[in-house]
């Protein structure tokens, strides 16, 4: 077949013969053409008419009832329009949305299958977020049962994001606060369905009424959704309906691919340093007394007080809105974080008074020297006790969330051993350093060096043993933590052990080293030992956050 | 004094427990105008207008919210007959993907190996000079174009006309070759014209729906909406090797062996014939070729079909009975059928089932191809690629003369032969016959089958022009010249959806920088090329729409009854055909109610052919069959657009993964989350393992959206439709050292 088409004869040189280009560039920016269409509404009338009324309960709530989301999983096809509608209709930031869709899939060859799961806040009968909040920024509406977050009250501690077993409250870093689903309560009060329910092409999401007592009964019996935390913890109210979701071999979309959690550096600093300071206050008086160097104590205690205050300063850096830090105690009645703040507040007072009592010249005081000693002993006891109470509150903050990695025994052991090892290392380093100076030049530390080194080495070994246990756990969540420690967190995990090993090595040097009579070497070794111990503890604490598998709804494939 | 004390108390109370304030107010809603319900102040519009979505072929109407003349948000149009007030995540996020840092804002020309900004004037001069130089040395047909199903009809038509009638090109094809060519070819051969017969109302009116190689739950969620609204408690049959979302919602899932579909449908035909479950009257009155077809399916015994498909005989019989017992049976297919080396015959095997049982032309019936891209149907009718504008034939003198008259050009300007198909154009590049390529709104460096082979072509091209809304696509990155295009929502025109509905795209957002609509770019190309005069009448999309109407007159796709854009807008889109003088009473129309097809004898044809073996069957070295397909409703094809939305990114897997059956995983010592290597004869990629029973043993599924997937796929093609066979090739599997991640 022949080609009949001929080339058009191009002009001598190609180029525009008119000002078409500038015309088209100008036209491109003109948006007025749309106005010529009929489906262009300029004078919209405010619409109060009900939207998607069929997705709402017909009758009003009765006493003991509350609103709840109902999800008909048989109608959820996994399109995820609900998430984009939540984002768009609520005017949320960037990737912010208060609804998520996860995946459950079968690994059972005999029953292949999958189920997408859409979920937002479960508006629990006993909301963990509300119990955890130190500022009382959560309210459970007494009539509707909707769990609302008061955005302006929140100071951005993010504790609720750790406490919720469904990953519902989300931190908005730009705003420095947490925000969450309120079941579109403004729409509900206007007889409109929530954004997600409106947007579901298959009417899978609706609002229903549940009796709170019944919800508690069901939660107690463990009825909720496969692949989620025991519902008895918070009594979630969302009703998941499904005709085929009883398969025990269902896996969650993100089960095999855990990702490291946020490591919260300010909290890492705060937890380690304040625990070290408590340990120092515990150990220093005994150590200095045993060595007959009681006059070193004011210096060591002052230094310990210094790091406790650094710790508290670091903790405010964790807040999204630190200027509202004072609100942190409001939740004392229910929040372990408020209790921690109160306990460490008392600790600061006790420790400050204790240090002051050590420094005030006895002659300034209106009472006898023996009374002063009694006072100092009392204040030391108060310091240590309030400090331990604070540490206990810290432990509870995390163990309360019911994350396996943060179980009470492990967390308490870790935190207390940080106090003991860090305290010992701290006293070791400060006392040997002080011994290089004037009045203590000739002092002999041989009375306490071995015991402090031994305490340090043993507590570090004990801690390592606890941390390594996770690799032998059969628990699925612990296995995932171990997977993180061996995988993406491996370099930090290795550093943690290296630091620990180095610290123990220094302890051994101090115990049996050849240069025990050389104060300078001892001080250097002890200081290095403290640095290694602290670095190791910082790493351990970063891993404490990073490797903690959160409780949440089934996630999607990552 | 009292007032200031009260204020002081208030401040104190607020410090302790602040129930409201600036952060709370940000989310306070007020009842919206325009029937939108409650909306936060920040997204309250002062104007709204509806336009058709620019992602898939469903053609949802989106109600764009405007403030001070600019789009600030959208909601699915409540009163649309297409989407009934709903949209999928892509639609909801259609505007946010327009705002991206990598939007192309000015032309880029490769200088010293790097793409560097140039003015439009220099870019257009370069474009014309380089292509003309190539043509002068190697002939007019040494320059070709690869276009798209993503731009409006008017732009497709102008491109096809400028390239072929103005610039002298012979070869141009679209990425619709990758998705719809098979359906188009099957319809053309069976019905005499590329005419998907259905309307979406049929989803609601069927009592039996058979989905083949389709996962509408993810690929077409808004069509699935219609199925969910079917009031007849329909039987839903899903024929798919995988347990997909759609399969989970089926009343019968037939997990057939990959590419055993043709055997299955011939076997079903035989059972229907054996039991006399056919409609002899319909066959006699409205079809041709039944006798041959009946004898063709004779050898497809139940045993043979069961063996080939892996389905239990009972299940096959049950399926046949279900089809027989249905009063309104509809057959629906998507890429599982189209993207096959024998897809045309598979599509026709479904058409045959519909014809022989008389399930055509009535509500809730039909052999229905669900299209892929927003304007795939427009491309099939008006792109001037596979057929001469409006379903005409390049090879017919009469058609060429008819078009020349209609367009007021010389008939000699119209090529007298068909274009090479997509892969043939690329092969011509390999052979050095085509040396200049103009790629418009598509991303072959990611999407084309056997990607590595395509990558090697780059060096053979003397000049590669990529016209796209982003300068960052895999194809734009290797271009010599990048032309910045305005996107959907930044320009006007029409799309034609799966049910043949022509709907309007409107300009509701300004294009970034100096980006221009594809329409404007084509006009400028014509102007700079020196053939601007020829297209004097093609001055605006709406003017071109009038030209297209003229061209469609007397064709099956006659749209002379559509007055103008305003009429389309008021009706919420209009399906073709609408002939001049006809009034639009029903806006959900289906074809063939009268049994009159488009062949000269007005009859439909039974077409069949023996199934062929897999072009690349699993072997000892490559023991697995690789299936590819859509991964989520939040991803669109090569993710050029969908990856730009922060919300959409949350909704799909970040990393490429492979679904592997638990038995295979055990055999190859693979745990979920492990990194594994998937290797074919053409390439090898590393992916994360997802161990799931949703795939069958011996099969691996990898979503198509990730850049490396097509390094594996095998470039086999359907001989009639020339569509690539993405869905099956042989691969090997190996756990990568280091185990998990």
Task: Quickly describe the structure.
The complex is a heterodimer of chains A (558) and B (741). Chain A is mainly α and 558 residues long. Chain A has 16 helices and 11 strands.
Can you walk me through this structure?
- The complex is a heterodimer of chains A (558) and B (741).
- In chain A, 46% of the residues lie in helices and 9% in strands.
- Chain A is built from 16 helices and eleven strands.
- In chain A, strands 9-2-10 form a three-stranded mixed beta sheet. Chain A has a three-stranded antiparallel beta sheet with strand order 4-3-11, with no helix packed on it.
- Chain A is elongated, with a radius of gyration of 31 Å.
- Chain B is built from 27 helices and 28 strands.
- In chain B, the strands form seven sheets. In chain B, strands 7-6-18-17-16-8-9 form a seven-stranded mixed beta sheet, with helices on both faces.
- In chain B, strand 3 and strand 4 (61-67) form a beta hairpin.
- The longest helix of chain B is centred in the first third of the chain and has 19 residues, at 120-138.
- The radius of gyration of chain B is 27 Å and the shape is globular.
- The mean pLDDT of chain B is 96.
- Chains A and B meet through helix 1, strand 1, helix 2, strand 3 and strand 4 of A and helix 1, helix 2, strand 1, strand 2 and strand 3 of B.
- Strand 1 of chain A pairs antiparallel with strand 3 of chain B.
